Amino acid sequence: MPEADALIRDWNMAADPDAAACPFRAGAKLHDGPDVFFKRGEEHVRAAGLGGNWVVTRHALQQEVLLDPARFSSHLSIGFSRLIGEDWPLVPLELDPPEHTLYRKLIAPWFSPAKARELHDDIRDLAASLIENVRGAGKCDFMGHFGQPFPVTVFMRMMDLPMAEMPTFLGWADNLLRGATLDRRAQAAQAIKDYLLALIARRRAQPGNDMVSHFIASRIDGAEIPPDRMLGLCFMLFIGGLDTVASLLGFVFRELAQQPELQARLRAEPALIPAATDEFIRAFGVVTTFRYATCDMDFHGAALRKGDLIELPLGLASRDERMHDDPHHIDPDRKAKRTLTFSTGPHTCAGMHLARTEIRIALDEWLRRVPAFGLPPGAEIVAETESVWALQALPLTWDKREPA
Ligand code: HEM
Fold this sequence. Notes:
The protein is globular, with a radius of gyration of 21 Å. The protein contains 17 helices and 13 strands. 43% of the residues are buried. The chain has one domain (5-371): CATH 1.10.630.10. Helix content is 47%, strand content 11%. The protein is of the alpha+beta class. The strands form four sheets. Strands 1-2-3-9-6-4 form a six-stranded mixed beta sheet. It has a three-stranded antiparallel beta sheet with strand order 5-13-10. Bound molecules: protoporphyrin IX containing FE. Protoporphyrin IX containing FE is lined by residues 66, 74, 92-93, 104, 155, 236-237, 240-241, 244-245, 248, 286-287, 289, 314, 341-343, 347, 349-351, 354-355.
């Protein structure tokens, strides 16, 4: 905890009434205050005994932290294993270089731009069939009918997991990230761990063509991946693959529902969709990530002590007016769409090519197949701001007799 009170704030995103409507606009209010401040009272295991954590509000400063693993460590910074009293890291997210680099190389072939291209046609077919399931109804809950099943199915196919388990996985992921109590989060962490250990054992006994079997067969400097690293790797992919794309898609489609002109423009000019995808990614940094200070330092006026926890809500970088003119305005024609939504530095999101492909295809297929859609009158749409920012549900309506 800092000695000077000037940098201490009792900020709690969940308690801000504006956050449920739009966490990005609510978060941007912090830009009126210091670029780095100390938030009192975080109860999460990752901040145990620290009395709270630092929050970095600006794009440039978040970038500085993310690019400097020597001063800002990722080791156990998310803390899922600590929820259940253990200390295995998520792999590669909670590893620092040089070990991080070894695992990053290992997973690279599964997440290359070439792999995303290879999956492209299957992803498009999947998007089309999910949309066709609801098109004739003239309405849907975007999150339940598309936002979640679309990316989750892609991921489950890569892992060769049974589709019938999807609701269980989504429940676990939601409880792990947003469970109301630490107990509930810990139960979810335990359930995922147990499931993954059983999965690893099954794949070891009977290898297939999936990611887990591939990692079991891989060698690092001639040796098998140690059991705790294998668990951390599978856990990482499970969480990365289940929640993030769905969360981002929810905000994108709410924006389109609220902006009929933008929607009409993208429908009329599909060539703009790749640029619009990048603009949506710029504007909707849904992930909040963390680092620990590895030494005492003065960080832009904040006296950080070794071991202090630093919170980086990447959605604040999305809406930093020092980086983007009129940051809340969604403008596919924006020239520089610099973003930290996928982080930067050694931990830049491994799944970003896949995620971008999914978002682009979702936009393309929806705008081709569904006529002008909007929100039903009086719809109250609530955003969750714990961990990955997300919409609980997103009701959409359209005229089912109209062609797209
Ligand atoms: C829109 C969707 C996504 C967003 C916004 C996102 C965001 C992020 C961010 C911010 C990080 C780095 C956090 C940090 O620096 O501490 C990250 C890392 C990672 N993401 Fe994603 N992600 C997305 C989708 C995915 C998908 C679909 C996968 C895979 C199935 C994935 C796999 C990973 C992995 C493996 C890492 C760790 C990389 C490393 O530590 O080197 N992500 N992601």
